[in-house]
Write a structure and sequence with these properties.
The protein is of the alpha+beta class and 200 residues long. Helices cover 27% and strands 28% of the residues. It is built from five helices and ten strands; from the N terminus they run αααββααββββββββ. The strands form two sheets. Strands 1, 2, 3, 6, 7 and 8 form a six-stranded antiparallel sheet that branches. A four-stranded antiparallel sheet has the order 5-4-9-10, with no helix packed on it. A hairpin with a 2-residue loop joins strand 4 and strand 5. Keywords: Signal.
């Protein structure tokens, strides 16, 4: 049953009409392009590899390794990153692997967000929303990792946490900007601006 659902999801994704945003353009040529992109850049450190898909927190005073940041995991990046991982492990990059990834993430808009704090429980009650025009959207799934000490501990930032938020991309206009807003129990707000039309 899972196989049938995955095949149906993939068929739906690959047969979608072309839209204005690169996020929605997924076909065999794009799959092969993403695989090649990942293989050619397999030696890059992950942070450098992911750089075209990064945005920093809007109020960041300085941009360095301590800055709070977010990544948009587009279908292209998911495929390219898988190809990079396989190439680094000397495994063959196959079309079937990419097709499975597309099926698994069909309909998803995935954001990976790293935030920092001064206490071990700074991320308690963390929530995310997307704001686009007058709409506010909530994720349908989230993965919240517990904060860990940073390499700079006991200096600031002392703790950091990585989170993943999954939104339904059919609720989002993929050719327009969105702002991902994170709030924590202490009411601190972080904002990450993504112009979706600029992401491959």
């Amino acid at each position: 049953m899972k196989l049938v659902a995955a095949i149906f999801s993939l068929f739906f994704l690959l047969s979608m009409p072309l839209a204005a945003s690169a996020i929605a353009l997924v076909n065999r040529d794009v799959i092969l392009e993403a695989q090649e992109y990942g293989i050619k850049r397999k030696q890059l450190p992950l942070t450098e590899f992911l750089h075209p898909w990064i945005v920093y927190e809007e109020q960041a005073a300085i941009l360095n390794e301590t800055t709070e940041r977010a990544y948009l995991y587009t279908p292209f990046l998911l495929l390219a990153n898988d190809a990079r991982d396989k190439a680094r492990s000397k495994k063959t990059v196959q079309l079937a692997d990419s097709e499975k990834i597309l099926a698994d993430y069909a309909g998803c808009l995935v954001f990976s967000i790293t935030i920092n704090g001064s206490t071990e429980n700074f991320s308690n009650g963390i929530q995310a929303t997307i704001k686009q025009d007058k709409k506010t959207l909530k994720p349908y799934h989230a993965v919240i990792n517990s904060p860990v000490k940073t390499p700079w501990f006991p200096d600031e930032p002392k703790f950091t946490t990585h989170t993943y938020f999954y939104f339904n991309n059919r609720e989002v206009q993929l050719n327009k900007p969105v702002t991902v807003v994170l709030t924590t129990k202490d009411k601190k707000e972080r904002r990450f601006y993504f112009d979706l039309s600029n992401f491959k």
